[in-house]
Amino acid sequence: MAARELSRSLIIDLLESPNGTLYAVLIASVIVILTTVLYLLFGRSRSRGRSIILVGLTDSGKTLLFSRLSCGKYVMTHTSIKENKDQYKLKGKESGKTFDLVDLPGHERVRSRFIEQYKNQTRGVLFVVDSVNFPREVRDVAEIMYDILGDKYLSKSAASILVVCNKQDLTMAKSQSVIKSQLEREINTLRVTRAAALQGQDGGSTSTAVYVGKKGKDFEFSHVLPVTVEFAECSAKGQADGEADISAVETWLEKIA
To answer: Rounded to whole angstroms, how far apart are CA atoms 167 and 57?
Structure first.
C-alpha cells in the first residue's frame, strides 16, 4: 500500500513539474507500449483457437494426411459430406500439447459451410494440394485459397496457412516453387475478375471480406499479412509399403503451437 502511494506521489510531482506535459506524454506512451506487449504475449494467444482445419479439393489426399497425423496409419479413404475430427499430439519441445484436427469435406457444396462453422476455432489451415493434377486444378485451388485469404475473421486472427504440396512420391508431381508461382498468378487474375463482379453489383463489397494482397501490385503471398502462408512438400501415401513423408507438416505444426 505504501509503495502504491509513493508511486502515485512521484507521478503527481512529475506532472506538476515545469516539464509536466512532457512527462505526461512519456508516461502515456509507456502505458500504451506495455499494454500492446502484454496483449501480444498473452491476450492474442488466448484468443486464437486450437483447431487445425484441413482444406482442399476432393482426391487431394487431405483425408489420408489427416489419418497419418491423427493415428499414424494408412487408411483407404472415400469422399464424404461430413467432417472428420481427431486430436494431434505435438512432438519435440511442444510434446504434451494437442491440436484438434478437423478434416473438412472437399465437395464444393458443403466445404464453404464447414469453413464458416470452424473458422472461429482455427489456429491454422493445412491447405492440401494434389501436386500431380495441380495444372488442371489450379483455377479451383485458387478459388478456395482466395476465399480463405479474403475472410475477414481469418485475416484479423492472423491465421497460419501451410500449403501442403502432396503426392511428391509420384513422378509428375510439381514442386512447391512451381505451385506457389502458378497459384500467385491465378489468384492475381481471379482478384481482377472478382473485383469486376463486385462493381457490377452496385459497386458494393461484402462486409465479411478483405482485399486480398496489396492494391496496385501483382498478388504475392507475402502481401497478405498478418496471415502467414508457407509451402511444403509431402507424401501422405509414401512409397509402396514404406512410411509417409509428412515431416514438414509436423515441423510446421510445432512452430505454430
So the answer is: 14
